Amino acid sequence: MRRLSDGRIVVAVCGDRQLRSYDASGKYLATLNLAEPPSPQRILVRLFPAGGDTLAAHEGLNLRLELIAPDLSVLRVIPVP
């Protein structure tokens, strides 16, 4: 879970491989599915800050890092060797 500068909260839901955002009062805002199609073998390993309100989602077995904007749009996907 990460809190953004405007109070929004982004939560990693590992089993569903999603990021979900909520406003400062806890009202649901949006969901980002990290992989299509979902696979039980790939899991979200970490969610961490990547500068400002940009987040990085690291998926271990999928060997990639996704840079995520505050609105949950994917900015960039970086393969991890």
Chart the SSEs and their pairings:
Elements: E1 2-3, E2 9-13, E3 18-22, E4 28-33, E5 44-49, E6 55-59, E7 64-68, E8 74-79
Antiparallel strand pairs: 1-2, 2-3, 3-4, 5-6, 6-7, 7-8
The overall pLDDT average reads 84
User: What percent of residues adopt helix (DSSP H or I)?
Assistant: under 10%
**Shape from CA axes?**
globular
Separate helix tally: 0
Largest sheet: 4 strands, antiparallel
Global Rg: 12 Å
State the strand order across the main sheet: 1-2-3-4
**Which consecutive residue ranges, at least 5 long each, have pLDDT under 50?**
none
Q: What portion of the residues fall into strands of 2 or more residues?
A: over 45%
Oligomeric grouping of the chains: single chain
Supply the helix-strand structural class: mainly beta
Secondary-structure element string: EEEEEEEE
Total strand segments: 8
Separation of the first and last Cα atoms: 26 Å
Q: How many domains is the backbone divided into?
A: 1
Can you offer a commentary on this structure?
By secondary structure, the protein is mainly beta. It has one domain (2-79). The protein contains no helices and eight strands. The strands form two sheets. The chain has a four-stranded antiparallel sheet, with no helix packed on it. β5 (44-49) and β6 (55-59) form a beta hairpin. The chain is globular. The model has no long low-confidence stretch (mean pLDDT 84).
Jot down its keywords.
0% helix; 4-stranded antiparallel sheet; 81 residues; mainly beta; globular
Describe this structure in a few short sentences:
The chain is mainly beta and 81 residues long. It has no helices and eight strands.
